[in-house]
Amino acid sequence: MRVVLVASAAAAAVSLPTVAFAVEYQTADVAARRMFPDADAFDARAVTPDAAVLRQLDAQNARGSSREWTVRVARHGGALLGYVVVDRTIGKAEAIDFAVALTPDGTVKAVEILAYRESYGHEIRLPSWRKQFVGKTAAAPMRIGDDIANISGATLSCTHVTEAIRRIVAMVTLMRRAEALPT
């Protein structure tokens, strides 16, 4: 290996390679099939909460930047198995794509990380961290330090993904009550 010392920061920026950390682990379709392996059909639909649902999300401190979500309705033989909601949030500075599977009653069944672009904090992809959400409902606090553990070096990624999952669970619960999703 050859090391070259550079006299200026500008020259260093030009001569050193840029390192990219983006990793796409799986597509939303693959994640949906992993989370609902018994499903024989997925009906994808765009879900846009109306003003009343957005006000309720605000009241629950669960409103985020997403105004529309893609929801895959999982079915087996016509029977509803649950929902898969795909969303994106920001970690520290880069986007994190993820999917949340919910049972027909709005309980979290699974969480999958689809793409992670940060240079640190990829541990949120570990099953032990994601399993903390399984069984959570809209009544759960879902807050770092309360019922969700933090990962050192990934505090912002953990916090933002947790907030986004809490928002999705609240949105699905409200949309089911409003009969905007099949029950």
List low-confidence stretches.
1-20
| Approximate shape | globular
Structural class: alpha+beta
Range of strand content? 25-35%
How far is the N terminus from the C terminus?
61 Å
For the sheet with most strands, the description reads: 6 strands, antiparallel
Write a structural description.
This protein has one domain. A six-stranded antiparallel beta sheet has the order 1-6-5-4-3-2. 34% of the residues are buried. The protein contains five helices and six strands, in the order H-E-H-E-H-E-E-E-E-H-H. It is globular. 28% of the residues lie in helices and 25% in strands. The model is unreliable at 1-20 (pLDDT under 50). A hairpin with a 2-residue loop joins strand 3 and strand 4 (79-90). It has 183 residues and is α+β, with helices and mostly antiparallel strands. The N and C termini lie far apart (61 Å).
Structural key phrases:
183 residues; alpha+beta; six-stranded antiparallel beta sheet; 6 strands; disordered N terminus
Helix/strand layout:
Blueprint: H1 9-15, E1 23-24, H2 28-35, E2 41-47, H3 51-59, E3 69-76, E4 79-90, E5 95-102, E6 108-116, H4 127-130, H5 155-177
Antiparallel strand pairs: 1-6, 2-3, 3-4, 4-5, 5-6
